[in-house]
Amino acid sequence: MNKDYIIEQLKKQIEGFEVAAKTEKVGTVSEIGDGVARITGLGDAMASEMLEFENGAVGVALNLEEDRVGAMVLGEYTDIKEGDQVKSTGQILSVPVGENFIGRVINPLGKPLDGKGDIKSEKSYPIEKIAPGVITRQKVNQPVQTGIKAIDAMIPIGRGQRELIIGDRQTGKTAVAIDTIINQKGQDMICIYVAIGQKESKVARIVSELEKHGAMEYTTVVLAGAADPAPLSFIAPYAGCALGEYFMDKGQDVLIVYDDLSRHAWSYRQVSLILRRPPGREAYPGDIFYLHSRLLERSAKLSKDFGGGSITALPIIETQAGDVSAYIPTNVISITDGQIYLEADLFYKGVRPALNVGISVSRVGSDAQTKAMKKVAGKLKLDMAQFRELEAFAQFGSDLDEKTKTTIERGKRTVEVLKQGQYEPMAMENEVAIIYAATNGFLDDVAVEKVGAWERDFQKYLNSSAKAVLDLIREKKELSKEVVLKLEKAIKEFKEVYQNGN
Predict the structure, then answer these.
(1) Which one from 137, 294, 363, 474 is the annotated catalytic residue?
(2) Which of 81, 202, 344, 349 lies in the 20 to 30 Å Cα band around 245?
(3) What confidence tier does 396 reach under pLDDT thresholds 50, 70, 90?
(4) Is 413 annotated as catalytic?
């Protein structure tokens, strides 16, 4: 090759060479262990800033001390070692958001876990965001139909509400939340299920149930598994909320289930203790209340001027031996707009959902109900309150007057009516029909043990022979005289058919 030609080419390359000065803020890992790194040399780091480790792992600055930064590592930390370089990114921790995440199972950083390929996203939302102010909100006045009779009638949930589901382990807390997600089919609601520190096998079962009922078409599952590091469990609910805020900003309604915030508090306690933050009650750090309040306050019903979207939160808390006065349960009860309390004793008696109607409450109340449900629910609450009061006295005396006997007998049948199987959510109009039948004495002559079978046959009859009545309730959403007459006629016709057939 010609020597002059080579020199000519080199000259051209040198002429076209541009030197661009680039500054990077770089620190050094001084200590690493249990998913937490201590870094020196990053004096300008911001709180919650994303940091990039030499091995490609992402960290988040949590402790900003005088001479070093305490950061949690999101992901694998075992191959990070002392002396490794860490770069500042200048960005606050954000997660990718978008329509493409619907129907997928992702980790808290937006990476897919379902083996269905990468998820394209053009937008990112910060995981920490100031909650909407009072001016931007409007009154909660639209129902979230859970499909569970006892909840929709007595503890109604509205769009934009935060309703706590609380109870001991294995009392059906997740079942209530999953039934609610399944019931959102056709209700124009995006659902996000955040699994915090849950077994992957349990989440796989939940996903398969959601797929079976066609609910994954509008649901995203955010999973920080039991085997994942504590920092991922810590950011999981915030990541789920950021995804929800993307849809809320577009004017859509979102339902988020946080399963569960007890494990979330444990993961934050673990990270805080490793960062050597001063421990307080039950070894939790001093800002444990703020941990959950800043998350749940982001649930809101925005006014029409601000898009009209909403985020409804169903946080789950696990109690130990029914103790609702423990530290984390009382914290979350004081943040939320009511609680659904599931009792182990009721669960073992076969009352499922094991709802303790006395302790459970919705602070939004009948504002989140249709007129039809409001009308039947008022009588139902009264019947249940009288039944609970008289049931205790009835144990001690056998001589009861006729009125007391009637109240107790009707109460027993009402309890049977409110029992419901898992993955069997019910449409609002069907709930109204059966509750109306129970509270107006149409079941008084049905044996208590046969109420379940009577109801199943009644629902089949309504869905086939008396569909016009259900359509009327669904359309009008109230029990006018005309609707009541048609409903009573349908109940009486069914009773004749049922009695003749038995």
Answers:
(1) 363
(2) 202
(3) low
(4) no
